[in-house]
Specification:
single chain; Elongation Factor Tu (Ef-tu), domain 3; six-stranded antiparallel beta barrel; 2 helices
């Protein structure tokens, strides 16, 4: 299993007991959906290692306490601290037609209602205070905030997203590329 076949579920943040239990901070709006997992993949030395879950329960809002098979001591648990946790993409729930996962829109054509074809969506940068569509336009980047008000239509079969952007946003990027 490679990272390209998986999605990021969360990060192992702490040990819970001296018996090897761990707490995973889940990166999801629906933590309860992942309370009864059978297994997870932990990134360890640049590889995804599968671990079976003996038991788990949700702590607070987004902390999942897990007991992993063959992790039976504090030393074993220490070795997994601060590591990222992944699940196969097939574990993602189906979305409505007008919803999308960030990973699935890479390569979609971006169309603005006023400016027409503005380029190809390379990825969504969610490492900023507001997530941004990163669109390549003739070697330059156009950044559009991920905001329902700006997304007019998602056409998954034709791999296009049509935007209604605020006046001047696209011109600002196109103006920069012409200077």
């Amino acid at each position: 299993m490679t990272k390209g076949e998986c999605f990021y579920l969360g990060h192992i943040v702490s040990k819970f007991s001296f018996k090897g239990e761990l707490q995973i901070k889940l990166d999801t709006d629906e933590p309860e959906r992942y309370e009864k997992l059978e297994s997870i993949f932990v990134e360890y030395r640049n590889k995804l290692i599968p671990f079976f879950i003996e038991q788990s329960n949700l702590q607070k809002s987004n902390l999942l306490r897990v007991k992993l098979e063959d992790i039976d001591s504090e030393a074993d648990a220490d070795d997994l601290l601060k590591r990222d946790v992944f699940l196969p993409l097939k574990e993602l729930p189906e979305l409505d037609e007008n919803q999308f996962y960030y990973h699935e829109i890479s390569g979609f054509k971006a169309i603005d209602e006023v400016h027409g074809d503005i380029g190809e969506i390379k990825f969504v940068n969610d490492q900023t205070p507001q997530a941004l569509f990163v669109i390549e336009n003739n070697g330059d980047e156009i950044l559009i905030p991920v905001n329902d008000r700006f997304i007019k239509k998602i056409d998954k079969p034709n791999k296009t997203i049509t935007f209604t952007t605020p006046e001047g946003l696209i011109d600002m990027y196109r103006g920069d590329s012409n200077s």
